[in-house]
Design brief:
138 residues; 64% helix; mainly alpha
């Protein structure tokens, strides 16, 4: 029972952190839109993020049973030292972690390679239309 409560608390904490990350990213990307469209980009971006998170949650819950059994070709180990078995959940977590690390490095590299980090410096990117900006937010 304690393990279930701990898992629930970890999931709630993870959702809170990821939700804050979504809000931060959407608000930063919305600064690239023309002044009149910034509020709309934030609202639509947050709405899309919430809907996608709920849809993906239901999809994962419905297919979770398919990922419980370890893949035989990804199992092995060293006798009496270490044993490992990758299942679908392990693969999803590894790929998700890799994607987050890649995205973070890409964003940090972009921030380092720009001349300035002021919003005024993004004025050259104001020619993005609303649809392209929402696509970037996704």
């Amino acid at each position: 029972m304690l393990g279930i409560i701990f898992t629930l608390l970890m999931l709630v904490l993870l959702q809170a952190v990821l939700g804050f990350d979504n809000l931060l990213y959407i608000s930063l990307e919305s600064k690239k839109a023309p002044e009149a469209d910034q509020k709309r980009v934030r609202k639509v971006g947050i709405l899309i993020a919430i809907v996608l998170r709920i849809v993906l949650l239901f999809v994962l819950v419905s297919i979770i049973d398919f990922f419980k059994e370890p893949f035989s070709f990804l199992s092995g180990g060293i006798e009496d030292i270490v044993h490992f078995a990758f299942n679908g959940h392990s693969i999803i977590v590894l790929l998700g972690g890799g994607f987050i690390i890649y995205t973070a490095i890409k964003e940090i590299w972009h921030m380092i390679s720009t001349k300035g980090l002021d919003v005024d410096d993004m004025a050259t990117e104001k020619n993005l239309n609303l649809q392209m900006l929402l696509l970037q937010v996704l």
